[in-house]
Amino acid sequence: QVQLVESGGGLVQAGGSLRLSCAASGRTLATYDVAWFRRSPGKEREFAAAKRWSATTTYYADSVKGRFTISRDNVKNMVYLQMNSLKPEDTAVYYCAAGRGNPVAEEGYNYWGQGTQVTVSS
Questions:
Q1: How far apart are CA 38 and CA 77, in angstroms?
Q2: Which residues are within 8 A (CB) of 98 and not within 5 positions of it... i.e. 6 or more apart?
Q3: Cα 28 from chain centroid?
Q4: Which of 28, 97, 117, 119 lies at a 20 to 30 A Cα distance from 87?
Q5: What values do phi and psi take at 116, rounded to 5?
């Protein structure tokens, strides 16, 4: 079992930055793909960013490409999401996930955190 806990969410003005963190426990994340998904008000949860277990391949949704950066520290068992140039439409609950399936699909992940709220004001 892998337990994931997100932190770093909050309220930020449009154009600002936030860094989300995801702390893992129970097992090492080194052999898992990791990802960030988000759920905006009134919408389904959607993929945002993922990084393969080997850290050689990274995926981004078109909506965040060029603004968000996913990273991982397998020694600290941590995953991060650096979010720059934030927009009001980035307002969502952000979830950290770990798994070994399709890296850009929810069904590819077995383990999920509880989420952290990010609110971007205009």
A1: 21
A2: 2, 4, 24, 29, 32, 33, 34, 35, 79, 109, 110, 111
A3: 17
A4: 97
A5: -135, 135
Residue 54: band (very low, low, confident or very high) from pLDDT cuts 50, 70, 90: confident
Distance (Å, whole) CA 114 – CA 117: 10
- Residue 3 has a pLDDT of 97
Residue 45's alpha-carbon distances to 31, 56, 70, 94, in angstroms, are 24, 25, 18, 9
The CA distance from 69 to 122, in Å, is: 22
Region at 66 (left for phi over 0; alpha for psi -120 to 50; beta for the rest): left
Look at residue 100 and tell me whether its pLDDT is greater than 80. yes
Calpha distance 61→77 (Å, rounded): 24
Closest to 110 (Cα-Cα) out of 122, 90, 93, 96: 96
Distance CA 86, CA 20 (A): 13
Residue 76 has pLDDT above 80, yes or no: yes
